[in-house]
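User: Okay, second chain of the day. Same drill as before: sequence in, structure tokens out.
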Amino acid sequence: MTAKWLLLTTLTLMAWAAPLAPAAAQEAAKRTLSVSATGTVTAEPNIAVVTMGVLTEAKTARAALSANTEAMGALIDELVAQAIAKKDLQTSNFSVQPRYVYPKRSSDGLQRPPRVVGYTVSNQLTAIVRNLDSLGEVLDKAVSTGSNQIQGLRFSIDKPGPLRDEARKRAVSQAVARAKLLAEAAGVTLGPIMTMSESGGVRPPQPVARGRAFAAEAAAAPVPVARGEQELSATVNITWALQ
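Assistant: Same drill. Structure tokens below.
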């Protein structure tokens, strides 16, 4: 048996086996199990984010702005007096807008142009209230001081990182338990994890129960509010090889 013959035989066997390798790999890749699971954590919120402000009207923009500046300064001073740190106060919107009057169409069918009859100044402030026990009083004092705009109130969790990690752990545990159950029911054995991902990231805290709406008018007692609970969730996708 010559060396040339041995070389030709080896090359022939390699060429015959080469197409089988990808096919075998593809066949093995088909034997997988993919599971998605969502883990949730429920916690009580510890901060509230409130958007409030002052809306003033006057015949001139200067007069409207002066009145607004005075009222807004008093509002900020009151919020600071309510133990809200200056770093937790941020102007979120400011606008100066003319107010128009649109005359009726004249008898000859002509439409006269609108005329300016005054100006409106709006200044809105977003405040983070960290002491939720004082939230009702903060809202009451804000309205009493001069805030005539409260656009929204939402509760949140100041440092959700550890809670989000716990939601991730619960999602993985649920995925593993579900995969084992499915594999046992199908009569197969789970192999190593091939891929793992988190779909859509982690959802921000979602309200579980809505708080009561608060009145826009000042009252003798603090405004009643209900903080409820918040839910954080994480979704994972895991693929196992099947043995």
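The first strand starts at residue 32 and ends at 43.

User: Thanks, on to the next one.
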